[in-house]
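Field log, afternoon session.

UNIT: design team B
ACTIVITY: writing a sequence onto a fixed backbone
BACKBONE:
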């Protein structure tokens, strides 16, 4: 019975047109113009390019809209699997000429890094890594454990940039001893949420001064209601 279902599924997939694959891929502004299905290897390859109606190009350097295209090129990335088929997308991209940055690649939100993975693939790996070890996520998605850890770091960096950070009302300051060579690192935490906010080299007054100067505005500094530190005098002087 299972074999019959697989045969029927493969027949349905083979009969699908490029426009159907465009809807399944679901990349905003892109259309599939070619597809290949390998039943034996369980692989699905899609070729995608921008729709003619969506040619707003953004410079990857400065983030400004540009109009001059220098050349096009292809880039192959791993996307989420389609059913039981490992899916890759060969996407057509552009190198553009920016008045301020010169020739740069276009910025594509669907491809947030130079790694050969789509954003939603990296998001899925990052979310899986929240509750499982890198080796477990590697078994689930295919890349090596070291690749999973790198993907997870990029996922967390994007999450940190876009999330709404809680206001700092009660702060904690302490140091961690790293050994004779590196010695100390200063850690600033938000005591309301229990999360570390900033790390600085050594444990001097100037170290904590740097946090106040570079990480908090005057308004944010004035919003701090309490600070918890030990008896280390440089921290107390900075606060």
């Amino acid at each position: 019975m299972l074999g019959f279902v697989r045969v029927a599924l493969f027949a349905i997939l083979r009969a699908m047109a490029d426009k159907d694959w465009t809807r399944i891929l679901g990349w905003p502004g892109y259309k599939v113009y070619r597809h290949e299905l390998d039943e034996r290897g369980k692989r699905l390859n899609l070729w995608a390019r921008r729709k003619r109606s969506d040619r707003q190009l953004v410079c990857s350097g400065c983030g400004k809209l540009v109009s001059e295209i220098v050349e096009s090129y292809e880039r192959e990335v791993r996307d989420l699997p389609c059913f039981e088929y490992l899916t890759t997308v060969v996407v057509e991209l552009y190198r553009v000429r920016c008045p301020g940055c010169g020739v740069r690649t276009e910025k594509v939100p669907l491809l947030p890094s130079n790694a050969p993975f789509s954003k939603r693939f990296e998001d899925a790996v990052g979310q899986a890594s929240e509750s499982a070890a890198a080796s477990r996520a590697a078994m689930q998605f295919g890349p090596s454990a070291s690749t999973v850890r790198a993907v997870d770091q990029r996922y967390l960096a994007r999450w940190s940039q876009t999330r709404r950070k809680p206001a700092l009302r009660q702060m904690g300051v302490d140091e961690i001893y790293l050994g004779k060579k590196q010695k100390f690192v200063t850690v600033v935490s938000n005591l309301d949420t229990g999360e570390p906010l900033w790390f600085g080299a050594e444990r001097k007054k100037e170290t904590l001064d740097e946090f106040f100067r570079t990480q908090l505005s005057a308004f944010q500094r004035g919003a701090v209601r309490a600070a918890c530190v030990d008896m280390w005098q440089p921290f107390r002087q900075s606060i």
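LOG NOTE: The mean pLDDT is 90.
NEXT ACTIVITY: expression trials, pending approval
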